[in-house]
Amino acid sequence: MKKELMEVQRQEQLAESIFRLELSGTLVRQMQKPGQFVHVKTGGAYAPLLRRPISIAEIDNEKDTFTMIYRAEGEGTLQLSGLRKGDQVDVLGPLGNGFDPDAEIPGTTALLAGGGIGVPPLYELSKRLKNHGVNVIHVLGFQNERNVFYHNEFAALGETYVATVDGSYGEKGFVTDVIKNNNLVFNSVFAVGPNVMLKAMENSFPDNRMFLSLEERMGCGIGACFACVCKTAEGSYKKICVDGPVFQAGEVLIPC
Amino acid sequence: MKKELMEVQRQEQLAESIFRLELSGTLVRQMQKPGQFVHVKTGGAYAPLLRRPISIAEIDNEKDTFTMIYRAEGEGTLQLSGLRKGDQVDVLGPLGNGFDPDAEIPGTTALLAGGGIGVPPLYELSKRLKNHGVNVIHVLGFQNERNVFYHNEFAALGETYVATVDGSYGEKGFVTDVIKNNNLVFNSVFAVGPNVMLKAMENSFPDNRMFLSLEERMGCGIGACFACVCKTAEGSYKKICVDGPVFQAGEVLIPC
Amino acid sequence: MLNVSLPGLELKNPIIPASGCFGFGKEFAQLYDLSKLGAIMIKATTAEVRFGNPTPRVAETPGGMLNAIGLQNPGLEKVLSEELPRLEQYDVPVIANVAGSAIEDYIEVAEKISSAQNVHALELNISCPNVKTGGIAFGTSAETAGKLTSAVKKVSSVPIYVKLSPNVTNIADIARAVEAAGADGITMINTLLGMRLDLKTGIPVLANKTGGLSGPAVKPVAVRMVYEVSQAVDIPVIGMGGIQSAEDVLEFMYAGASAVAVGTANFVNPYICPEIIEELPHTLKKYGISHITECVGRSWKHEQKPAYSRP
Amino acid sequence: MLNVSLPGLELKNPIIPASGCFGFGKEFAQLYDLSKLGAIMIKATTAEVRFGNPTPRVAETPGGMLNAIGLQNPGLEKVLSEELPRLEQYDVPVIANVAGSAIEDYIEVAEKISSAQNVHALELNISCPNVKTGGIAFGTSAETAGKLTSAVKKVSSVPIYVKLSPNVTNIADIARAVEAAGADGITMINTLLGMRLDLKTGIPVLANKTGGLSGPAVKPVAVRMVYEVSQAVDIPVIGMGGIQSAEDVLEFMYAGASAVAVGTANFVNPYICPEIIEELPHTLKKYGISHITECVGRSWKHEQKPAYSRP
Ligand SMILES: Cc1cc2nc3c(=O)[nH]c(=O)nc-3n(C[C@H](O)[C@H](O)[C@H](O)COP(=O)(O)OP(=O)(O)OC[C@H]3O[C@@H](n4cnc5c(N)ncnc54)[C@H](O)[C@@H]3O)c2cc1C
Ligand SMILES: Cc1cc2nc3c(=O)[nH]c(=O)nc-3n(C[C@H](O)[C@H](O)[C@H](O)COP(=O)(O)OP(=O)(O)OC[C@H]3O[C@@H](n4cnc5c(N)ncnc54)[C@H](O)[C@@H]3O)c2cc1C
Ligand SMILES: Cc1cc2nc3c(=O)[nH]c(=O)nc-3n(C[C@H](O)[C@H](O)[C@H](O)COP(=O)(O)O)c2cc1C
Ligand SMILES: Cc1cc2nc3c(=O)[nH]c(=O)nc-3n(C[C@H](O)[C@H](O)[C@H](O)COP(=O)(O)O)c2cc1C
Ligand code: FES
Ligand code: FES
């Protein structure tokens, strides 16, 4: 973990309110696993006050750059979307545990399910799984066609299904519907998205090896403030920012 | 008075912490008098919260542009100094009464005394006085040589003396010292600067026709909040933002 | 979809410029038609002319500002003879903010000003933190607040709203006391007592030393207090404290306000009130609300009707 | 030029991470050497293990944040057996924040935790706004606050500092009561009670509904209260509320604080405490101060000695 003023290399809009930001700096050298995140400070001294947690979507260790993909909606992410090449941005990271693609057995098939802005971290994960010899199937859920991004990028790595809530792009429905309707077969599951989606995944595929990445409002992002806790089945608790954001299914109770 | 998103045409640094900003927009068409000011909002929705009063230093009615010269010191002016050509900035103005150069008799001599960031409004005033056939003498006071700006610009319009507190540029001392030491002779006085300087001018030249421009912390800038009042000799009060910032000497009691 | 009925007040919309942040409307009348407003809360009026505190009277703070104007105003007589008549040309009810050093002052001002033709309600200022006598002293004890309220209620020809101070341990107690004493409504919050010190000199930036904190910084405190008070009393609440947008208006109404006042934001953007009024119908539509009154108390009505469930 | 002596505490410098914003130091120890700090205020400890409130527990506000953690902590036993021993490797005094639901809880925790080797002072948390019982209930009445203080004073082996709530009408009264009851110092302010509502659903953003407001937004309120309390009592005050910079530290010390705590800013910049410590000597120099203790109470000492005149 490190705090660095990173430099904007590229900022581009991918879809309605969805931006892709490439940052460079030595902090990238510490990024080890897909599914880790960074904590980003935008604006001046106190507006907005808190950092914003954003997943690492792609790591380029040769160029010391990484990419994040985010939805510009609130104050912090809107400011982020105003950054231009050459600007500096205050990044704390990498944070959290992340996924472990090397723990999968080569030759098996992994299902990667993402909902909305849960999709980005799956990209680096998918690349690493593929490198490791694991077959990947992607099921990406969005609200509607205007929000869809990275369809081609994921399709280049493996079988890819897109679902939209209103059916305006790909198949109509939620990711769980698409998985069932297409009778997808897989050994392990990696899911990132809103808690309702994660819960649905847990309930729909109770027998699969499954890893889920959770979101929660954060204060510190480093384990000190107890803002981001969730309960475990045994009545204890985990901090999403340090013990997560990735948990094996059943390890924590998904709040929703 | 009007509120407009004006466009930055030019931003340049003149001296240590001193910047010159040229803005364009139709609001310029309402600018009538030197000594009026604008109320500028920088930053986002609430950081910094309040507008900043800045004097109009030069008006170009042909290009619909005006210039302000300011010291970047606090949060708002530092943000202002970060603006680049093409950026937009929220300006309310023109505000206040201003000086009336046409009320001077052609052929007479006006002394323009400015202290620090009180110097800028004297520039447009000097140009107009000169145009009107009034001789101008400038006495400009600064902390030290690093803060000096617009010496040449004023010198091009008339006799110009510069004083610095530490003597590192021009003559050593306050503007009142310089006026006395050089035995300057004049009919009317126009002074802008810190209250102590205005008071010293009032005391030093009690018999001259004299106009002073006052500064005070402002809320609204338009006369509604009573933040910027000063007392009059008769026990009543004036609002600096609308009844001023320019007052005839003796009209109000200078707080200091 | 924006009209609101309150004791003494038929508002076209729930947007009211807050007292002390709009003078007597004269300056803003040069910028837009005051008839657009729901109502106008005029600057605090005292029996006598007041100059207020020495300057500096304002200071900026993170996300907010401090003021210590000290109730400067031209005095009752001039307000009656000049300020109020000038406002008659607009189709907008006036809420007169009444202040004083002693109960008698409040009674005198309330009685006279409430009979002005365009004054539809009084706002009893028992919460000004910037005067040595009166003001907040009346607003920090439930008993004193109640006494003053009933004394003024007796002489007023129009409904009275009591303006509460947030600088108290239990604001709901004060609210209940003024309700019991006959208040027709509550306005809240006045400013939080705060201070800034000059780094070079070490002394307070404001000549009055302390001042009242307002603006976005105080919004969470104001929303919490409106939430508490609106559940504690049966009279309507006019909410304020940091409102800058149509969304902020919704937040206060969800908390339990029936209308809102906009203060500090008028300094940041003098067109803020008409802009919010124009924006409100779109904001309501965005959140699926067909009339603004549906918003009132939604945060706690929710708990009473478990039919709506948390999404 | 930065060392400060307080009851039970010899501080290298006046910078202390505030309770609840620094856990038990473990996470920050990965970022810098904790021995750099003046002291450490550890997370509130209760007799039993506490999970705290449901999530969401934090929400952002203009210039501030709301939290409703609800005193989550591993419980007295684990703090004694694991957290405090781990902190022994650093050359830094620990101030243990003590909380509970009833007087007996405070007594139990205070007695045991005060005998830990590296605990040099206790901070009595009578101001947590986020728990149903205890917490703020002890801090809003001078009488209750005094009773709790004297009960804890009897059992504590180290000096006790009482942490005051800003959610009161008269904070100086509470301060005087705890001083009379034997408190060795005061820490202030805890958070202001606030609330945010979700625009889509109308319900509170925090699962606990209300939360405690902290960060730069509250700084003017905190400074004002430190100014009042430091003049009302003769015991030292440790000030906090929105401190983000060396300049902010000066402002609190001018107001009357003898040392300060930094809370929310640790989330914005986890290196903030060592950065302020490094910056302080330059800041003091800039303002012509040769030792930090000269700053203490400069805002009001000024009045007592009219020799210094307002420039
Ligand atoms: C581990 C993790 C990884 C994430 N990865 C991504 C990503 O790759 N791309 C992306 O677009 N978003 C991601 N998010 C969500 C992202 O953090 C929020 O969208 C963002 O914080 C919203 O900030 P804002 O300024 O737009 O909203 P505002 O409404 O201004 O935010 C106000 C406050 O609420 C918090 N907040 C709001 N929404 C969320 C949320 N969904 N989760 C956590 N905190 C929230 C903000 O951090 C801030 O403190 C991730 C969240 C977490 C916890
Ligand atoms: C009528 C008038 C004309 C002015 N013209 C100029 C000019 O041409 N060039 C220039 O550099 N400055 C001018 N000033 C001063 C200028 O307004 C302040 O320097 C500026 O507001 C400081 O803002 P900041 O963000 O740097 O400081 P901050 O310290 O962040 O300001 C905090 C608050 O204090 C107010 N404030 C601070 N200093 C002053 C001051 N001296 N006068 C009034 N308010 C102050 C700010 O407006 C703001 O509300 C003028 C002031 C007035 C009243
Ligand atoms: C400069 C200023 C002057 C004020 N004067 C008064 C006043 O005369 N009477 C009153 O009841 N409230 C007064 N207030 C308080 C406001 O009406 C309002 O209650 C408070 O500012 C909170 O709202 P805001 O955050 O929208 O400003 C004043 C506030 C400010 C900023
Ligand atoms: C997330 C969070 C948790 C806190 N937990 C505690 C606590 O356990 N005990 C306590 O006395 N104060 C607690 N506080 C209050 C802080 O110690 C401090 O008094 C307050 O936040 C004001 O300082 P700040 O503005 O610098 O954060 C907490 C504050 C925050 C933001
Ligand atoms: S965000 Fe602070 S503990 Fe996780
Ligand atoms: S600044 Fe508001 S009256 Fe002058």
UniProtKB/TrEMBL annotation, chains A, B:
Pathway: Pyrimidine metabolism; UMP biosynthesis via de novo pathway; orotate from (S)-dihydroorotate (NAD(+) route): step 1/1
Binding site for [2Fe-2S] cluster: 220, 225, 228, 241
GO annotation (BP), single: 'de novo' UMP biosynthetic process
Entry keyword Transport: yes
Cofactor-binding details, from the entry: Binds 1 FAD per subunit. Binds 1 [2Fe-2S] cluster per subunit.
Family recorded in the similarity comment: Belongs to the PyrK family.
Recorded superkingdom: Bacteria
InterPro entries in UniProt: Cyt_c3_hydrogenase_gsu, Dihydroorotate_DH_ele_sf, Dihydroorotate_DH_Fe-S-bd, Dihydroorotate_DHASE_ETsu, FAD-bd_FR_type, FNR_nucleotide-bd, PyrK_electron_transfer, Riboflavin_synthase-like_b-brl
Keywords, comma-separated and alphabetical: 2Fe-2S, Electron transport, FAD, Flavoprotein, Iron, Iron-sulfur, Metal-binding, Pyrimidine biosynthesis, Transport
Annotated binding of FAD, by residue: 52-55, 69-71, 76-77
PROSITE patterns xrefs: FAD_FR
GO MF term set: 2 iron, 2 sulfur cluster binding; electron transfer activity; flavin adenine dinucleotide binding; metal ion binding; oxidoreductase activity
Described function: Responsible for channeling the electrons from the oxidation of dihydroorotate from the FMN redox center in the PyrD type B subunit to the ultimate electron acceptor NAD(+).
Assembly with partners or alone: Heterotetramer of 2 PyrK and 2 PyrD type B subunits.
Record-given protein name: Dihydroorotate dehydrogenase B (NAD(+)), electron transfer subunit
Domain FAD-binding FR-type: 1-101
SUPFAM superfamilies (UniProt xref): Ferredoxin reductase-like, C-terminal NADP-linked domain, Riboflavin synthase domain-like
Swiss-Prot/TrEMBL cofactor(s): FAD; [2Fe-2S] cluster
From TrEMBL, chains C, D:
Domain of life: Bacteria
Active site: 128 (nucleophile)
InterPro entries with a match to the protein in the record: Aldolase_TIM (IPR013785), DHO_dehydrogenase (IPR050074), DHOD_1B (IPR033888), Dihydroorotate_DH_1 (IPR024920), Dihydroorotate_DH_1_2 (IPR012135), Dihydroorotate_DH_cat (IPR005720), Dihydroorotate_DH_CS (IPR001295), Dihydroorotate_DH_I (IPR049622)
Residues annotated for substrate binding in this entry: 43, 67-71, 125, 190-191
Pathway in which the depicted protein is active: Pyrimidine metabolism; UMP biosynthesis via de novo pathway; orotate from (S)-dihydroorotate (NAD(+) route): step 1/1
Alphabetical UniProt keywords: Cytoplasm, Flavoprotein, FMN, NAD, Oxidoreductase, Pyrimidine biosynthesis
Cofactor: record remark: Binds 1 FMN per subunit.
Cofactor(s), names only, from the UniProt record: FMN
Gene Ontology biological process terms in this record: 'de novo' pyrimidine nucleobase biosynthetic process; 'de novo' UMP biosynthetic process
Domain Dihydroorotate dehydrogenase catalytic as annotated: residue spans: 1-284
One CC-aspect GO term: cytoplasm
Primary location: cytoplasm
NCBIfam families, alphabetized: PRK07259.1, pyrD_sub1_fam
Quaternary structure (record): Heterotetramer of 2 PyrK and 2 PyrD type B subunits.
Family statement: Belongs to the dihydroorotate dehydrogenase family. Type 1 subfamily.
Name the record gives this protein: Dihydroorotate dehydrogenase
Upper taxonomic lineage: Bacteria, Bacillati, Bacillota, Bacilli, Bacillales
Gene: pyrD
